[in-house]
Amino acid sequence: MSQYVDGPKSFSCSGALAQHLRVKTPTSLAAAGALDREIGTLDRAALATGDSRTVRLRTAPGTSKFVAAGVITAGNLFYGAAGGKVSETNNGNLIGIALETTTANNDVFEGLRMADGRAASDVRSVEAHTAGDTLLAAESGSAHTNTGASGTITLVLPVATVGLEFFFALGAAQELRLDPNGSETISLPSTGVPGTGGNYLVADLIGETVHLVCCVAGNWNVIGYTGTWAAEG
Questions:
Q1: What is the reported pTM?
Q2: What Cα–Cα distance (Å) separates residue 143 from each residue in 60, 155, 192?
């Protein structure tokens, strides 16, 4: 009969792994990427493929040890980083709150996980753009404005990958253009019909907003909007 475990649990490792790294893939443990939803942290270092090691599951009560990718200040939020580590860089994958300060890469510190291990709307990052920019997949879940802009701003979206989402709001009465990657498409808010491949979505009045989510690879769907958003041309 199977048992439900809310503490350390043993898994086979896919290779050498340092102690306290965030790990994924229960069939063969590997270091979790910056945006991966890990199963927990490694209790003891693995030296080779096939080593059996216990994992402190991310649902376990209490605090956990983590490996920092750089400086993290006690009391600050920390997020997923490459190679199973964590950092203060907000990439949308919130892990927890630091209880100790780190000073360098690979420092181990104590942290308290957030309830669901991911960023929520109450910690959403907001960036004001006064010049064009290319958004990254790692910024999924963030909000972007043109507050302070004195002219047209074009924001280039990352490759439309299922699950990515972005929020946009106009804070200046200037054109804010949302440009898809290459020949990908953005659905027109008023109809839901995908626009012409490669054409941007644009609005120019303060207070207009749009929420884009990729539900099908290669296309951005509009989940909600205010104001008037038009397709290029």
A1: 0.53
A2: 31, 12, 21
